[in-house]
Amino acid sequence: MAVSTSSYYSLVITETKTLLCPVPECTKRLTPGTRLCEDHSAAILQGGKNITNIGVIKLPTSKTNEFVTLFPLSKSSERYNSLVTSIMNDWKKQNVTDLRIETIAEIYPSPSQVKTFNEYKAMILSMRNEGDDDVDNIYNHNKVMALYHGTHQHCGPLLTTENGQLQSNPQILCGSSDCGVCGVILNGFDPNKIGHNERGETFQRLGKGFYFAPHPSKAHYYSRGAQKCHSNDPTRKTQVLLRCLVAIGKPYHENIVQQKKTAPPEGYDSVYGAVGTCRTRGHGSLNWPEYAVYDPRAAIAVDYIVYSYTSTSEF
Questions:
Q1: What does the pLDDT look like over 38-76, one tens digit per residue?
Q2: ω into 296 cis (within 30 of 0)
Q3: What are φ and ψ of residue 217, in 5° steps?
Q4: Element (H or E) spanning 155, and its range?
Q5: Signal peptide span per the entry (predicted)?
Q6: Residue 182 φ then ψ, to 5°
Q7: For the residues of 171-217, what is the DSSP string, one character each?
Q8: Four-CA torsion 106, 169, 43, 14, nearest 10 degrees
Q9: How far apart are CA 131 and CA 112, in angstroms?
Q10: What are the respective helix, strand and coil percentages of the chain, to the nearest 5?
């Protein structure tokens, strides 16, 4: 069954609702539940054929005739600048020098990914007696949160000009399931990848789950394999982060390390590690907060972020 435009773009964070459509020269405002205006949402669903002045990237998923669309934002758009401000303000850990945002591309997941996420979200909201008819309520009360995820990238990164045009060939995204960034974008979070990372670390404080952070500086540590030399400036390195919508539901506040945990306690949907908790010999306690979910349906990538810096203390 076809996915309607409204449900396809119901993946929304409330910050977008008063912004203009980010397509260059479009003056229409977004409405709650959308990330583009109605006309351009419909155009994206048709493969971007009716959109001009932007580089739309379509990538095939593992499902037949399904695609994920990446839409690089113009650096003059309201949403681009809103996200840049948010990223810079939330970058609390002083682990990079001269941080700069290079590219933000909105990720429009495949219909199957959207359907899976929305069904899971509706299920946990129903279990917690939360309605799904009020977008503001869901996001303002942290039932669904926009959080950062760091992972390796064998390809990329995509770099854009001021108006969102690509500086490099879209095929630079390899689409391989062995590439952390491409794997998540195209096919979602894979339980078989839990515990496998470019840092070679197996320590998982909250157990065998998918980890997300409210601070991009925390996720930076885990995107080691995404580090590349900047194609236009040899003094800078680039890395990639994914901004994801995560169905947190009712989080359990963990106080001790639980490396063997494979699910939240009964009655909860996720696990939260607060600063100063989960102390262990050799690793100390948490310096920055983090969330873990254990069901791959609980998270979906919605923004591809390329950032650069001149040095970092963590590699």
A1: 777 777 666 544 444 456 777 888 888 888 888 888 898
A2: no
A3: -65, -30
A4: none
A5: none
A6: -65, -40
A7: GGS---TTSHHHHHHHH---GGGTT--TT-----TT-SSEEEBSSHH
A8: 10
A9: 22
A10: 25, 25, 50
Q: Which domains does the chain have, with CATH numbers?
A: 55-312 (3.90.228.10)
Average pLDDT estimate for 85-95 = 95
In the chain, count of helices (H) and strands (E)? Answer: 7, 13
CA 34, CA 123: separation in Å to the nearest integer? 22
Instruction: Give the list of residues 6+ apart from residue 74 with CB closer than 8 angstroms, or none.
Output: 22, 23, 24, 54, 80, 162, 163, 164
Q: Hunting for tokens 């992972």 — which residue is that?
A: 151
Q: Which ranges of the chain does DSSP label H, i.e. alpha helix?
A: 5-8, 38-45, 78-90, 111-127, 135-140, 180-187, 216-220
The first and second tokens of residue 67, run together, are 């695609």
Tokens of 72: 């690089």
DSSP notation for 115-144? HHHHHHHHHHHHHTT--SS-HHHHHHTTSE
Q: pTM, whole model, 2 decimals?
A: 0.84
Q: Using alpha carbons, list the distances in angstroms from residue 253 to 146, 248, 264, 270, 278.
A: 19, 12, 10, 9, 10
Residue pLDDT, tens place only, 152-203: 888 878 888 887 777 766 556 888 888 999 999 999 999 988 876 666 666 6
Tokens in use for 8? 């396809």
One-letter amino acid for residue 242 of the chain: L
